[in-house]
Amino acid sequence: MNQKKRILIVHHSGNLGGAPRSLSFLLDKIDYLRYEVELLCIKRGPGLNLFRGRPLNLIINERIFPFHGSTVSGMHFKLFIKNLLYAPQSFLAARKLIKLRMPELVHLNSSSLFIVAMAAKSVSIKIKVVCHIREPLLRRSFAGWLIKTFCYLYVDEFIAIDKFAAASMKTRNNIKIVYNAVNFEEYNPDIKSKILRQELRLPAASIIFLYLARFSESNGTLQLIQMAKALSGKYNHFHFVLAGLKSGHSDGYTSRVVQSAFGNPHIHLMPFREDVPSIIASCDILVVPFTEPHFARSIVEAAAIGKPSIGSNLGGVNELIVNGETGFLYDTPDELQQYCEILGTDESLRLRMGTDAVLFAKRNFDNRISSALVFKTYDKLLTESV
């Protein structure tokens, strides 16, 4: 009987969000009879609950830190200094752990973990490294350049979740595009839910626009609030649910979002939820008002459940919506408001676009197919190392 291949998967956050959900779907499909899987998480938090209940060894090591430099993290002076200060500690902690575990393959769930790739190769050049590219790197950024350069030097194979993110990396043609995917057993149009209407005590005739992302400038949260105020004044049955509120909302941007929405009975703020299929199924339209290009997992999930999306015409987002068929792509705030009015007032159009979205999702976002492509990369690298 062949011995199991030792795989170390490294995740960069403890929060709920798209990246941990994507990783959890991959863990659903991995063959635990072939691979001995260890999952290293460098932060504690509610996102780790998505990984439990599987035959893997969960390791938590908070002495390793991500190195930020993407459009999702943004960049400011303090963050850049933090990157530099924690890099040596992260390298030493990762090297110590890898030397103890001696995996045959390390899978980084983000390019922000390139220091772990450096540590792995310093232990043994035979250790293969796969890196998931989940967000495009910042342009004209020294931090982004560092990530790009060191990933190029220490990563054996890249897996990008969209074409735009892939284009921000430097590679040796050792990259493939594998869109984030869903399990259709969990996300499908047969799911019926009224949970948002029940929790918020909304009339049955309400039209619910759902935003499912962090509250951040790059995600356009404040712009959506401003538009929601204008639209709800015109359409009394329009309601906007924004799920992505941090507990304590200590950062300045989130505080401005909360203040801007305060007192408006048509705008509802709530934390990230673990019952994502239910809250998507209970909405009518998904809204993705990103101001910076990056992947939007919520569009994939909404499409699988049969909900149309309205999203900004930016890299990542515009690969997930077929404009005029599965939803709308907008270029200006006026277009965003216009498309919200069109979809919010036309039930037959919502149903038609929702049906087309399911067909598109089945062709592009089936986790059985996507995960198999990742495991094919594993097998290719592990065969090379023999």
From TrEMBL:
InterPro entries: Glyco_trans_1 (IPR001296), Glyco_trans_4-like_N (IPR028098), Glycosyltransferase_grp1 (IPR050194)
GO molecular function: D-inositol-3-phosphate glycosyltransferase activity
Enzyme class: transferase
Domain Glycosyl transferase family: 195-355
EC number annotated for this UniProt entry: 2.4.1.250
The entry's keywords: Glycosyltransferase, Transferase
Transferase in keyword set: yes
Keyword Transferase belongs to the record: yes
Domain of life: Bacteria
Protein known as: D-inositol-3-phosphate glycosyltransferase
Encoding gene per record: mshA_8
Boundaries of every Glycosyltransferase subfamily 4-like N-terminal domain copy: 17-185
